[in-house]
Amino acid sequence: MIKDINLFYFYNSRGEPSIKTEILTENGIFSAMCGTGKSRGKWEKKTFNVKNSIENFLKIKKQFLGISEKDWKYFDSLLEKQKNIGAELTTPLSISCLRAATKNQIYNLFEKKSFNFPYPLSNVLGGGAHGGSTSIQEFLIIPSKAKSFPEAVSLVINVWKSVQKEFKKKGFIAGRNDEGAWLTRENELKTLDMLSKITEDFGCDIGLDFAATQFYKHGFYYYPFLGKKFNSEQQFDFVLNLIKTYKLKYVEDPFHENAFSSFSDLRKRVGICISGDDLYCTQPDRIKLGVAKSSTSGIIIKPDQAGTISKTLEAINIAKENNMDIIVSHRSGETCDYFISDFSLAVDAKFIKCGVGGGERIVKLNRLIELWYKLERPKMVKINYL
Ligand code: PEP
Ligand code: MG
After folding, report:
1. Identified catalytic residue from 20, 249, 302, 364
2. What's the rounded Cα separation, in Å, for the pair 334 and 37?
3. Which ligand gives the minimal distance to the CA of 41?
4. Ligand 1 first shell, C-beta below 6 A
């Protein structure tokens, strides 16, 4: 039974205000923190001023005391009714309650007999809203040949280190961004040329998160470092050409957040993972729109976009019923909580999207390495196009 709830005014990896929650039961203290985004989608659950969220919750805290942690769905339903509390508080509260219900074994939520480990999908170079020269936000590595999760992480880290070394030699690096990825000084094509040579050496594949809404203005997609602006058809051809030239295996948000039909057209042309992040914002109603148009084969799942784990699971269920690949993702502003690692196992995610640079990123991959050794019968998930 929930005896008390404590809230702490903390900070995330970007130095932004954030909240640590603690739920106290007779079994102990169950705490949580969650990340927050910079390239946020229009339909995400809103974040509030952290101080206001805390003050508003303290006024209604009593409603949540005395509930059994096993009734975590009811706990979430109460959270979802609150209009004056943002995702930065509802999400960690919901995670804390689920941690209490599962005694800190969220990966065991569905009591599976064996575990399929996701592939890391790790940002090694960045631009867009996270900084850097390219409009494309994230250049991602997929360690497709890895036979185990520890091997997968080792490959990604080696690529990340090689990128630093090789790009630095040419003066192409301007530092590290919010997600611990290197800030490229070059345009998208030169960046991809150099990156693909490195990934070839390590037998890894490349993915891209365009986060295209961020650079779509008045009907055009802007690429200042390429000296180009593309209308919708030209953007489509550009994306298709990059997929073919660099043998991309994963493409996220290549079009703006309402371009369901462009996503569908691209999906018909390629057999790789086309996924939606800003397109869906982990919102069941948005996913239904995408399903009706067969827009994507994959979906980014960010629990704080939904605001509770119950709503996140509702989104995942719709996606899975429609054969979408689940990609559980970090945010650019993160904390050292590894909830998404445990959760990715519980929901059989194909990928865990998470950088390798910085404690708040590597803690999530290290958690999965630990579980790889501790859980019985671990194996890498099967992905047809890898
Ligand atoms: C993303 O767009 O996939 C991402 C992780 O960025 P942010 O957290 O800034 O939305
Ligand atoms: Mg994204």
Report:
1. 302
2. 8
3. 1
4. 37-40, 209, 211, 277, 329, 331-332
Ligand 1 pocket mutation pick from 18, 36, 302 by most atoms within 8 angstroms of CB: 302
302 belongs to the catalytic site: yes
CA atoms of 190 and 196, how far apart (whole Å): 10
Q: What is the pTM of this model?
A: 0.98
CA–centroid distance, 28 to ligand 1, in Å, is 33
Domains and CATH numbers, the chain: 4-107 (3.30.390.10), 115-380 (3.20.20.120)
Q: Which of 69, 88, 138, 179 is catalytic?
A: 179
Give residue-wise pLDDT tens across range 30-71. Answer: 999 999 999 999 999 999 999 999 999 999 999 999 999 999
26 Cα–ligand 1 center, Å: 37
- Does residue 133 carry a pLDDT above 90? no
Predicted local confidence at residue 99, as pLDDT: 98
236 CA distance to ligand 2 middle (Å): 18
Ramachandran category for residue 307: left, alpha or beta (phi over 0 → left; psi -120 to 50 → alpha)? left
Question: Is 69 known to be catalytic?
Answer: no
SS (HEC) of 283-319: CHHHHHHHHHCCCCCEEEECHHHHCCHHHHHHHHHHH
Kindly report, residue by residue over 363-385, the tens digit of the pLDDT.
999 999 999 999 999 999 999 99
Asked if 376 contacts 117 with a C-beta cutoff of 8 angstroms, the reply is no
